[in-house]
Amino acid sequence: MEFKRRFPNAVGRIQQLDLGVLHFFLLDTNERAMSRLEWQTQLDEFRAALAAAEGSDRVRHVLVAGHHPPFTNARWHSPSKAVQDAFVEPFLACSKSRTFLSGHVLGYEHFRIERRSFIVTGGGGGARFSHLHGDKLRQKAKLDLADPHPLHYLDIEASPMPCFAGCAR
Description:
Elements: H1 2-6, E1 15-19, E2 22-26, H2 36-55, E3 61-65, H3 81-93, E4 97-102, E5 108-113, E6 116-121
């Protein structure tokens, strides 16, 4: 509630940042803190913004971030069904989407789904929790890290890079 009071325009609204060929979306994934109307409005805005990015000749890559992960093998936190239901399908439907970032579970995980990366990067501090392994996995991960997952951070830098096979020009 304190976040909502301090940043009333950020709750239930997507935030967007245009970095030239990269378009970045920040989602409010805390469905429980929003009304149904706020949640639906954000989803509608997200779909419209993805369609605009898809139709833009300038945008080549879409990166999305939200706090709650749609996929995780964390033992003490489940994948967010709300995020899966609302945002994964439109993200995967956008040919320019590349990476979906999330945190919340205090560990690093990397999943590949339909040639897109779903990266959980919640290990910058706090307690580290164990994750499921072997036949207990909810979702096959790209890496199987030892428990507890190491402390880490993710540093993203926008820089010119060559277009690899399969990227939109």
